[in-house]
Amino acid sequence: MAIDLVTKKKRQQPTPDTNYISGVSLFNRYPTYPSSGLTPEKLTSIFKEADTGHVSSQAELFEEMLQKDPRLFGMFQTRKLAVTREEYDIIPGGTDAKAKDIAEYVKNVIDKCRNWRGGGTIRNGILNPIGALDGMLDAVPKGFSTLWIEWEQSEKYVWFNELHWMAQKNFRFGLPLNPRADMNEIRRLTDDSPMQGIQLEPNKWVVSVIQAHSGHPARGSVLRTCAFWYLFKNFGAKAFVIFAEIFGIPFRVGKYGPGAGDTEIKALKSALQSIGIDASAVLPESTMIEFPEPPQKGTNVDIHERLINQSDSQMAYAVLGHTGTSQSTPGKLGSEAAAQEVKFDLVHSDALAVSYIVSDQLIRPLVDFQFGPQPVYPFYKTRLKKPEDLLAEIQIDEKLGAIVPLSKAYLYERYGRPQPKDEADAVAVQQKVVTPFDSAMSKGLLGRKGELLK
Predict the structure, then answer these.
(1) Burial class of residue 216 in the structure, from the number of CB atoms within 10 Å of its CB (0-12 exposed, 13-18 middle, 19+ buried)
(2) Using an 8 Å Cβ cutoff, are 53 and 218 in contact?
(3) What is the pTM of this model?
(4) What pLDDT, in 10s, does the model give residues 238-282?
């Protein structure tokens, strides 16, 4: 890597803020669990509070939604992993040698970032469990996400070691009591300023904003769109659990004769309770137990399941743009091919958002600190390849090759196969020899035992 662009002279460029920022505040160290006892009225109250810029309760609710709903969590993981698993390129800001050297320096710094793709790093006893890309893409479900940059500086170089994700509940938007305040301004809540917060330090933060629809950052998240269906699903799940608890074990009715005393009645009551656990009991001869069938039991089960499935479908539309392959219908939007198209559009949008966020909020200050202001800066680009029907593409290339000669290099690159170095390195794929027997079988002229059909 070329590093002679930096001299040993004293820096003329601005220097980074290398201070460590603690994300543990006394006033919000412990969660408040706003989803506990959640009702439509309480959910509306949380949203109205977020509309004023105070998003702490909404942020905690979104965190609980991902923790409590496996399907919702899995759908967002699908979108996130589709971006984080891919490689990336740093596009130079120009074609000259200096621009290429700057791009190479940037890529080297990102490659050495300890948590760029994964978390689990620990330093001075402090755990950083979330990767940088994962932290940025946390804005996909929640609308926005924040990471502070751990800058390092030596006599000649500037770089960043890690990016530290900070929970959304530590921030607010704007100052509602100030009529001239910009409600899009993001401010960090601290112990000294737990209500109004403080301004973010310049070039110290990466703020990801990935919204499902236009509007204020507190209102544009996908999870806000899913929140009421999440609530309805929980109503259905709760009713389903209660139903299973009541009717999963047969309903017991004990009967005793007119002459039964307190001892017989107590024994019968104890037997009814024991049947729910042990499924057996010892009774006096004068008593009996019946197991009546509850009316319309199947109808009640179906109602709860339909509500849960409907809620899952609506949330899947919001997150993935379709209901998933489990409910796909050939020839319609829910089909596998159409679903993949929709999913790729969302993944491409997420990857493009990350590219601009990294380029503008991370690469630009890094280049300014190291090399000074540049006319054009390097650009971070995720390598995404649109899913294709390989069989259809092969058939097209076969027809095209019959008209226009195709190079071997094109074919190897087209289908993602490494090209052999020489003939000794190549492995020939043995072609099947078609015998008359195979030809007859393919044409349906032979029976199962090989007899010639008449």
Answers:
(1) middle
(2) yes
(3) 0.74
(4) 888 777 766 666 656 667 677 777 887 787 778 767 765 554 454
| Per-residue pLDDT tens over the stretch 331-356 | 444 445 556 666 788 999 999 999 99
Q: What is the 3-class SS of the chain, one letter each residue?
A: CCCCCCCCCCCCCCCCCCCCCCCCCHHHCCCCCCCCCCCHHHHHHHHHHHHCCCCHHHHHHHHHHHHHCHHHHHHHHHHHHHHHCCCEEEECCCCCHHHHHHHHHHHHHHHHCCCCCCCCEEECCEEECCCHHHHHCCHHHHCEEEEEEEEEECCCCEEEEEEEEECHHHEEECCCCCCCCCCCCEEECCCCCCCCCEECCCCCEEEEECCCCCCCCCCCCHHHHHHHHHHHHHHHHHHHHHHHHHHCCCCCEEEECCCCCHHHHHHHHHHHHHHHHHCCCCCCCCEEEECCCCCCHHHHHHHHHHHHHHHHHHHHHHHHCCCCHHHCCCCCCCCHHHHHHHHHHHHHHHHHHHHHHHHHHHHHHHHHHHHCCCCCCCEEEECCCCCCCHHHHHHHHHHHHCCCCCCHHHHHHHCCCCCCCCCCCCCCCCCCCCCHHHHHHHCCCECCCCCECC
* 58's tokens: 């909404």
Rounded Cα distance, 218 and 187, in Å: 13
The answer to whether 170 touches 147, Cβ cutoff 8 Å, is no
